[in-house]
Amino acid sequence: MLKLSGKVIEIKSSNASGNTLYSISTNKELPKILRAEKAYLVSDMLVPEGFKHYIVLDHLTACIPALPVDAEYTVLSQDYSYIANDDVIRISQEKSAIRVLYRASSPNNGILITEQCNHYCLMCSQPPKDIDDSWLLTETEALIPLLPRYTKEIVFTGGEPTLFGERFLDILRLTKSYMPETSIHILSNGRSFKSEAFTKSYAEIAHPDMMVGIPIYSDDPAQHDYIVQAKGAFDEAILGILNLKKHNQKVEIRVVIHKQSIGRLKQLCEFIGRNLLFVDHVALMGLEMTGFTRANLDKLWIDPHDYKDTLSEAVQILARYGLNVSVYNHQLCLVNSDVQPYYKKSISDWKNEFVEECTGCKKLSDCGGLFSSGVQHGYSKNLHAFS
C-alpha cells in the first residue's frame, strides 16, 4: 500500500500559509520557460536551475548545498520514493504536509471533489462530512491544468460531486478543454440528474468519453433506500438514469455486494435487463472493508465464497440480456470459472495487497488481490492459491 499523504521532514518555502500544487519534473534539460511552475525531483549533485521548487528524498540531503541559491525545497521520507515525472503533489508549509494528488504511472487516479453527500450509505468508504469543503473544487481547478495530456482516465469522486451543480460542471468543462482525449468517470448517486435542466447542461458539455457511475442496490425501492439511508433515493436515481440516457449520455450501474444486497441480486439484474437495458455498463462489486463498513460489519459482511453461485447466476442474467458486465473487487479464487471472463483487476494500485494464502499462486498476475483495509480487518478464510 502506497503512502499518499503525511508529514514532510523539512520545508523551505516563501508560501507560509495555504497549499501549493507542483507538477514534478525529472528532466534536467527541460526548457527554462517550462521550469517556473515545476518542482524538480533531485537525483544527484547536478541540480538544474530555474525550477519553482525542489523535492529531495531524505537519502539525498547531501545534495541540498548543491541547490540554487535561495532555492525553495521540501525533504521527504523514503515513503515517497515512488514519486516520478509528471506526478502532481500538494505541499502545505503551514501543516508541514504533503499529499500526492496524481501519479502519472497509475491507471487509478481519483480526484476528490467533496466529502459532503446526501446519502449515508451503510458501507460508505468515504463517510460524509457536513462541512464547507469548497476549497477542494478550487484545488481541482488548479490541478487540472497541471495534469499531463496523455492521461487515459480521470475519476471524479466524493461524497457527491454533483451537489455543487454548475460549479462541478465547470470543472468538467475545464477538464475537457485541457484534456479532450482523457476519459472522465464520475461517481455519483445519480439523484441530481433527476433535474432535466441539470442533465441538459451536463449533456451540453459534449465530452466524447464521459460516464456517470450510479449505484443501484436493489430492485426493491425500500431496500435500496435503506442501504443508502435516504428516503426516495431509488426513484430519484432511476429518474436520473433515464434523463441521462434520454440525452444520450453514458451510464454505468454499480452494485456493491454485501449481506443487505445479496438477497435480491438476481432480481435486481432482471430489473436492469428488463427496464434499463440501454445502460452502458454494469459493475458487480465486492465490499471494501473501510469507512462505515467496519461500523456495520455485522449487517454487511458475507464471505464471497458463500455467494459465488449467486454471483454466477447474476452475471449470466446480465449477459443474456446483452449487457456489458464486469465483476470488480473480488479475488480470482473466490469466483466460479464462468465469472472469470467478466472478471476485472479493479482495486486501485495504491490500496491493493496480497496475503500469505496467495503465496505461490499461479494466477497471481491475473488476480485483483485484496483491499489493504480487508487485509487489516478481515477477509475470506476460503482464499487459496492456484497450483
Summarize the structure.
The chain is an alpha/beta fold.
Structural commentary:
This protein has helices at 32-35, 135-143, 166-178, 196-203, 221-228, 233-246, 265-275, 292-295, 297-300, 308-320, 372-377; strands at 5-7, 10-12, 19-25, 38-41, 53-57, 73-76, 88-92, 97-102, 110-112, 153-157, 183-187, 210-215, 250-256, 281-285, 325-328, 352-353, 370-371. The protein has 387 residues and is α/β, with parallel strands linked by helices. The chain has 2 domains: 5-102, Glucose Oxidase, domain 1 (3-Layer(bba) Sandwich); 110-377, Aldolase class I (TIM Barrel, Alpha-Beta Barrel). The protein has an 8-stranded mixed beta sheet, with helices on one face. Helix 7 (265-275) runs parallel beside helix 10 (308-320). It starts with a strand and ends in a 10-residue tail after the last helix.
